[in-house]
Design a protein that fits this description.
alpha/beta, Rossmann fold, 13 helices, four-stranded parallel sheet, six-stranded parallel sheet, 20% strand, globular
Length: 377
């Protein structure tokens, strides 16, 4: 067989073989580059958490940890976070290099049970109690024409009931009807589940939170519901509450015209609270067992509030992931932290620690005094 180029000139067999060999090398290097980028490679990847319902000074209200997360993301290639960090009712300012992951899925990821695979967009199913509220429909429509989401709404046959409770200063609650929800939505094809239902919170607790701050009473039971449902479905799940103004008191209704703590303002200025969830779930990564997915071995650090030690921290200890604890972000917890955690004053300092790690310089090398070089006998 003879080979000719595009000008109909004869090509010796050796040149054809060389060209094929060169093409193979180019394809191999391209594939290697793509896989390296997707799986982390030598990139700087981190996890940013602010656990829900524990009154965090930064991130314990309504997406008020977003600026800190954006700052950390600016020195990372990928920053994995969870809804409590960036959900600000009708606002979500997460950056393009953030991955939005439900809390219990994030725990399993850090434990090495699962990987996370990026996606261009998800088919979102929104579950609501019957009858479907106009605000829910309008929120989905707004998401379709601004974010460009692919979403449909399903009315639940069994109402999902969420009742907020406070136990030892921590927000938690009771979730009823979640098993029926799982059974019903399992009959449909979708990638991520959004839920828009009301949460029962006593008027006294709600008014006290809006006027005096403290622990957000809605977040704890939302996290509990999302975990229960996500564990069964194996998909990303996020909940947004709605205020049932028909049944709320005039005093609670009037709070929306009062000046509140800036950290609570996103809730007061919102009317539907759903947009943040729709934006987050649109590109939330899927659970994956592929080698090409992100795994906990691709993670370089986890950032956490001070004196908080739970499942994600234990997972990082076992996986050898460096934990950075931020002193300014206090909570109601006073957990003892391991000695190998890096303690920083604030998120500005945390950014410096990560930048040093990314630059390949030790922390002691940029501080003075510096210890003498050790001689090992």
């Amino acid at each position: 067989m003879k080979y000719f180029n595009e000008d109909n000139q004869y090509l010796p067999k050796e040149r054809v073989v060389d060209s094929i060999y060169l093409l193979f090398i180019v394809l191999f290097l391209s594939l290697y580059f793509i896989l390296t980028i997707q799986t982390g490679g030598n990139n700087m990847n981190g996890v940013f958490i602010v656990p829900t319902g524990i009154g965090a000074e930064i991130g314990g209200h309504a997406g008020d940890a977003t600026p800190a997360a954006k700052l950390i993301a600016s020195v990372c290639d990928k920053l994995i976070t969870h809804p409590n960090v960036v959900n600000a009712s009708d606002i979500n300012e997460m950056t393009d290099n953030m991955l939005y992951v439900e809390g219990s899925i994030l725990d399993r990821f850090l434990e090495g049970q699962i990987g996370l695979e990026e996606t261009h967009n998800n088919k979102i199913l929104l579950a609501v109690n019957s009858p479907t509220r106009g605000s829910s429909i309008n929120a989905v429509s707004a998401g379709r024409v601004t974010i460009g989401i692919d979403a449909e709404i399903i009315e639940l046959k069994t109402p999902l009931q969420m009742i907020s409770k406070m136990e030892n200063g921590i927000a938690t609650g009771e979730v009823l009807g979640w098993e029926e929800l799982v059974k019903q939505v399992s009959d449909y094809k979708f990638d991520a589940l959004a839920i828009h239902t009301s949460i029962t919170v006593s008027q006294e607790i709600a008014l006290n939170y809006f006027r005096n701050g403290g622990v957000n009473p809605w977040g704890g039971v939302e996290a509990k519901a999302s975990k229960l449902i996500a564990d069964k479905l194996g998909k990303q799940v996020a909940h947004a509450p709605y205020i049932d103004f028909e049944y709320e008191s005039k005093e609670l209704f009037m709070i929306y015209d009062e000046v509140v703590d800036p950290r609570i303002a996103p809730e007061i200025t919102s009317t539907c609270f759903l947009h943040c969830v729709l934006k987050g779930l649109n590109k939330a990564p899927k659970i994956s067992l592929k080698d090409s997915a992100y795994w906990n071995t691709d993670i370089d650090f986890l950032i956490t509030p001070i004196n908080v030690f739970g499942r994600p921290h234990i997972a990082c200890q076992k996986a050898g992931i460096q934990v950075i604890a931020v002193e300014e972000n206090k909570t109601v917890l006073q957990d003892k932290m391991p000695d190998n955690f890096i303690i920083v004053k604030n998120y500005l300092e945390a950014t410096g620690v990560i930048s040093a790690k990314k630059a390949g310089v030790t922390l002691e090398s940029v501080r003075r005094p510096i210890r003498k070089t050790k001689i090992i006998a």
